[in-house]
Every structure is written in structure tokens, then in C-alpha cells.
Amino acid sequence: MSNIDPLTFPPGFLWGAATASYQIEGAAAVDGRTPSIWDTFSHTPGRTKGGDTGDVACDHYNRYREDVKLMADLGLSSYRFSIAWPRVQPGGRGSINGKGIDFYQRLVDELLGHGITPWVTLYHWDLPQELEDAGGWPARDTAYRFAEYAALVHGALGDRISNWTTLNEPWCSAFLGYASGVHAPGRKHAPDALAATHHLLLGHGLAVQAIRAADPAAKAGITLNLYAISPADPSQEDDLDAVRRIDGLANRIFLDPVLRGAYPEDVRQDLAGVSDFGFVQDGDLEVVSTPLDLLGINYYSRHVVGAPDPDVPAEPYWRASTSWPGSEHVRFHKRPGHPVTDMDWEVDAPGLTETLVRVAREYPAIPLYVTENGAAYVDVPDANGEIADIERAEYFDAHFRACLDAIAQGAPLHGYFAWSLLDNFEWAWGYTKRFGLVAVDYATQTRTLKTSGHRYREVIRRNGLAE
Ligand code: PNW
């Protein structure tokens, strides 16, 4: 895929924006929806910033028409959203809930009516609470329940949707959900995180098979949050080994089983004291590695890691050792003077190029999509109520360039989804972190396109960058 003009994307490049059900929908208890693990978690005191919940969020359930209009104004070619499992199959078992699926029917029709391709994620973290009560992802049965749910949704929407993503970021579901417990369901038992990893991937494979059985032409994939990783000091053996370990737990523990059909041997050894991987049954890895049509990559930042260092300051949760079983002695570093976003994540656009090129070189050929990329910053409206979010606009611009660099180096990148269309419920951070191209005033539910949104519209219009 070589480009004549180095600032132009390949013809047909997909330009999108992404959201997730629990982060935007609200309407948590209407039309038969039952609680998900995120309802339970966010309603448990002390779990989210300020006790924020997704009860109302962006009220997208009631305002989706207005939101689709915003997408059309931006010129999006695609919209990535997720389906709330407890809305369409309350409790995670049994038949489809007509009122719940009807919302997605209306949303999809609205998108298609505006020429926007729906890009569906089946699971963006809102597991029905009943399934968590029955064991959650550490229980093998949840994988079968997920495949059944996938088949139900496909049966209802398969005639109008061709792109299916099974899971969003299983690393977060497994490690933040069951090891460090900073995400729902908030459990803190490292062996469970490994069992959850396997059952998420098994559920993914089973779901792909169910969708393919119903429609051989359906396109199916998974979205992983991948990281560029580098050593604090490349001359130190210990730091290089820390890179190997964190790359193993963040990237390869998902990429290898899904794209190569095996868990990485070194990762299994690192984890020997945590889990014997006894949950892997004969035939599972064939299911997990069911061939895919595409891989979604969510990229935000780089991890810089090294051997333990008593001078390295205390860790924020996503660098906390509890999120990285088997790598407890690794230290995550913050490079002095390096720019960070409001999440305290380092801005590292070359890491996106590196990640895309690495996947293209090291794994079997598969079309790649950036399914999330974006930045939280504190937005300050000016006197006219406009939000001149220059830092976010520059973050996006740098990452568009990183995509072009990856394409120039041969990565088969076919699309890019900005995270996020709207400011929304940022999980454990509640409403305190804003990622939107569109600002949301939660008191009035007023939407305002930010400067980054205006600039994104120009990029989409040109299918490239201005200079
Ligand atoms: C992703 N971490 O979450 C999710 O897919 C989105 O729902 C979310 O809003 C977005 O990125 C921004 O956070 C992540 O701690 C949450 O490493 C936490 C981590 C990574 C991704």
C-alpha cells in the first residue's frame, strides 16, 4: 500500500469515532435492561471517582438521533459502538429482549440512513451481573454464554452489519477486573485474571464461529489494547527483561493465542507461580485462533519499564504491580519532562507506528484497524463557549502521521477510529476525564464540537493532512 502523496491516506480508508455502551447510553434500568458488573461496581461506594455511575451518562439511549447527526456533520464513514449485553439478553441467558435489541435496530437504521457504516463491538465490559454471580469470566461457562449472546445479536442485526468485533480490550477485563480490581467486578485474585483471559479468548473464538456459521461472509475480529514498550535503560539486561515480561502480559498473551494458536512459553513460565494454565482444555486453542478478517488495535501510550528502583515514585493503578501478575518486580517509569495527558499517560505517537509495524511483521498477515486512539485533557471553554482543545488536536495530528508512517512501512492499516465521539463515563475516573471530539455538558446534555472535532472533519474531508 504505497502512497504517492505522503500526507494522503489510501483510497477507501475508513474514518470513524468510537464509544461504548455503558460509557454513553444511560437509561440503565429501562426497557428490561438488568444490571451489569459496571452498574454494581459504580454503585459500590469508593469504586469510582466521586461515586459517578453510568445511570444517565450522555443519555445517548434517548439522544442517539442527535448523536448520529453529529457523526454525519463530522463526515464519519464509520461509527464503532458496543452493544449492552444486559439490554439485549437480560441476565445473560435466555431469549432476546425485544425492547433492548430494538434500540440497536433503530441506531443501526439511523446510521445507515446517514451513510455511516456500523462497526459493532459485542462486549465492551458490561457483563450481566447474573453471570458474574455465577463465576464471571474466570468460569468457563461464561465463554459459552457469550457465544450464545453473539449468535442472538447476529440473528437480529446480521442483515445490516458486516463488521463484528467480539471483545474490546480483554487485558482490561481480565487484569483490571480480576487482578488489581480497579475495574468491575473489582476482584483481586491474580489466578482468576489468567482464567478470565482464557475464557474471554475462548468466548471470542466461539463467537466468531457462531457468527460465521450464520453468515460465512461476515467479517469478524477482536480489539486488543496494545502498547509500545521500551526499557528505562537499554544497556541494562534487567530492564530488557522487564520489557519482555510486560510485552508478554500486555501484548503477546493475547496476540499469540489469537493469531498463532499458542500462549507464549516465556509468559507461561513467568506466571508459573500464579497459574498452571490448567483451564486450557484440548481443542481450546484451535477455537481461540479461529482465523479472523481483521484485528482492531487500541493505542494510547508507551510503557517504559525497568528493574525495581527504590527511587521510582509510587505507581498509578494501571502501572500497579497488582495489574501485572508474574511481573511484580518490574517498575513502570515516567520519563522526566515527557508530555503526558490528563490520564498521566505519556504521549508517544511513534509508539503507534512501532506497534502497527510490529504486528504486521511478526504475525500472520491480517488487515489492521486502529479502533481507539485519543487523549484526555482538561477542556476550558472560552468566552463564546468554544473549546479550543489544541493539545488534543495535536495529539490526534501526531497519531495520524504515525498511521501514515506505519502504512509507508508496509502495515496493512485500513481505518482509524478516534476515541471518543463524546466526552463520557471514563470508568473508574467517572466524568472527571474527557476524551471527546464533542464536549458534553452533563447538566444540560448539550453537545458542542471541540476544535479537535473541527480539525478531524477536515482530515476526513481531505482523506489526509494539510501539510
Ligand atoms: C480503553 N489502562 O480503556 C477503553 O476501551 C475505553 O472504554 C476507555 O474509555 C479508553 O481506553 C480510555 O481509557 C482503557 O489502565 C482503560 O491501561 C484503562 C487502561 C487502558 C485502556
Overview of the molecule:
The chain is of the alpha/beta class. The protein has one domain (14-462): Glycosidases (TIM Barrel, Alpha-Beta Barrel), CATH 3.20.20. It has 15 helices and 13 strands. It has helices at 21-24, 37-42, 60-74, 85-88, 98-113, 129-133, 141-157, 170-178, 190-214, 237-260, 265-270, 284-288, 349-362, 390-408, 451-462; strands spanning 14-18, 78-82, 117-123, 163-168, 219-225, 228-231, 294-298, 302-306, 331-333, 368-372, 413-419, 438-441, 446-449. The strands form three sheets. It has an eight-stranded parallel beta barrel with strand order 1-2-3-4-5-7-10-11, surrounded by five helices. It has a three-stranded mixed beta sheet with strand order 6-8-9. α8 (170-178) runs antiparallel to α9 (190-214) and α13 packs parallel to α14. The chain starts with 13 loop residues before the first strand and ends in a 5-residue tail after the last helix.
What's the main sheet like? 8 strands, parallel, barrel
Q: How is the largest sheet built, in terms of strand order?
A: 1-2-3-4-5-7-10-11
Named once each, the bound ligands are:
4-nitrophenyl beta-D-glucopyranoside
Which CATH class is shown? Alpha Beta
What is the CATH-assigned architecture?
Alpha-Beta Barrel
Number of helices: 15
Shape: globular
The named CATH superfamily: Glycosidases
Question: What helical percentage do the residues reach?
Answer: 25-40%
List unreliable stretches of 5+ residues: none
Number of domains: 1
CATH topology type: TIM Barrel
GO molecular function, one term: beta-glucosidase activity
Active site: 169 (proton donor), 372 (nucleophile)
Family: Belongs to the glycosyl hydrolase 1 family.
Pfam families: Glyco_hydro_1 (PF00232)
